[in-house]
Specification:
There is one protein chain. By secondary structure, this protein is α/β, with parallel strands linked by helices. The chain is about 35% helix and about 20% strand. The chain has two domains: about 260 residues, Metallo-beta-lactamase, Chain A; about 70 residues, no CATH class. Helix 5 runs antiparallel to helix 6 and helix 11 runs parallel beside helix 12. The radius of gyration is 27 Å and the shape is globular. Bound molecules: zinc ion (ZN) (2 copies). One zinc ion binds next to helix 2.
């Protein structure tokens, strides 16, 4: 049996869990670790048995709780290399400094090195009578004089590595990292995963198809339009999770600044109810048992509008067994879908 629960969906956080009897995967970790665990437990999915976290893209609503969750559970994060790098940049605050400040930093680093060398030289002076600590310390390049205690050096190096990887010090530290590429399928346990490229304003965004026990699940949110490579991937899915982000009129008349409205409506923004309905009516094969509408905007959409729009598109295909509609919510998990 394959199970799927959307733990949260929307601009305040996204996360979905897909599991079989032996494998459990989290797709995105856009809520706090504590909230993710609470919702997983509520959905009957034991967080301590998670095999890994897959990341679609580096936007905050998909990675908010990523590092803490991965570290707490000691599990790997799967993403593309550019997405990992973008996430690291996002978490590493960079202070811009002037050239003069940079020179000053270099000077004080050199001074610190020299002082350390002086101290070592003084130490070895006490061992050898004809060694001039002063001359050696001031004139010789740092590191080339005296005989630093190898143990002391090793300890210093260890201390440096430790500060670089301690989670409290380094917010980007993770237990393990696995890279995948869009278009190259891979497996986690008994779940086969195919990542595919989606058009969105992130560095290397992807959607996923999961296959296990003959069940196929397609997941595509955060995309500006429906390109043919995506609609091909979404063929033959038993569960189809699709973005239905905004109602165009609500977005146009809504509170966002014009630049943000343009971004949302752009080819690298989000799918509108109309765009999703258009795909469901014309590009979709009608195969899915469940169609989940996801990533609904709180400001520019209403669940009823998204639902009516999709229902209209699926009008002739809805039945007791096919194309049942489910709306993913921001504040609570969906019911758990089980497929055999
Ligand atoms: Zn996004
Ligand atoms: Zn998003």
């Amino acid at each position: 049996m394959v199970r799927m629960t959307v733990l949260a969906s929307g601009s305040k956080g996204n996360s979905t869990v897909v599991s079989t009897a032996t494998t459990r995967i989290l797709v995105d970790a856009g809520l706090s670790c504590r909230e993710l665990m609470r919702r997983m437990n509520a959905a009957g999915e034991d967080p301590s048995t998670l095999n890994g976290i897959l990341v679609t893209h580096e936007h905050q609503d998909h990675v908010q709780g990523l590092a803490v969750t991965a570290r707490k559970l000691g599990i790997p994060v799967y993403w593309t290399e550019p997405t990992h790098r973008a996430w690291v940049r996002w978490l590493t605050p960079r202070k811009r400094i002037t050239y003069a400040e940079w020179l000053e930093q270099r000077k004080s680093a050199a001074n610190a090195q020299r002082e350390a060398a002086d101290r070592r030289a003084q130490q070895s002076e006490s061992n050898s009578s004809d060694f001039s600590a002063d001359a050696a310390g001031r004139n010789a390049p740092a590191g080339s004089l005296a005989n630093p205690d190898p143990e002391e050096l090793a300890a210093a190096e260890e201390a440096i590595t430790e500060t670089a990887t301690t989670p409290e010090k380094d917010p980007t530290a993770l237990p393990a990292i696995e890279y995948f590429r869009a278009g190259s399928p891979f497996c986690i346990g008994d779940i086969a995963i195919t990542p595919f490229t989606i058009p969105h304003d992130a560095i290397d965004p992807v959607g996923f198809v999961f296959e296990a026990e003959g069940v196929r699940i397609g997941l595509a949110t955060d995309l500006g339009y429906m390109p043919s490579n995506v609609s091909v991937q979404l063929r033959g899915c038993d569960v189809l999770m699709l973005e239905s982000n905004h109602d165009l009129e609500m977005l146009r008349d809504g509170p966002y600044p014009w630049s943000v409205k343009q971004r949302v409506m752009s080819r690298v923004g989000h799918l509108s109810n109309d765009a999703t309905a258009d795909f469901l009516a014309k590009g979709y094969d009608g195969h899915a048992t469940w169609v989940i509408l996801a990533h609904l905007s709180e400001n520019n959409n209403l669940p009823e509008l998204a639902r009516i729009s999709a229902e209209r598109a699926l009008r002739d295909r809805m039945s007791l067994l096919a194309n049942r509609l489910l709306l993913a919510e921001q504040d609570r998990p969906t019911e758990t879908i089980s497929l055999v």
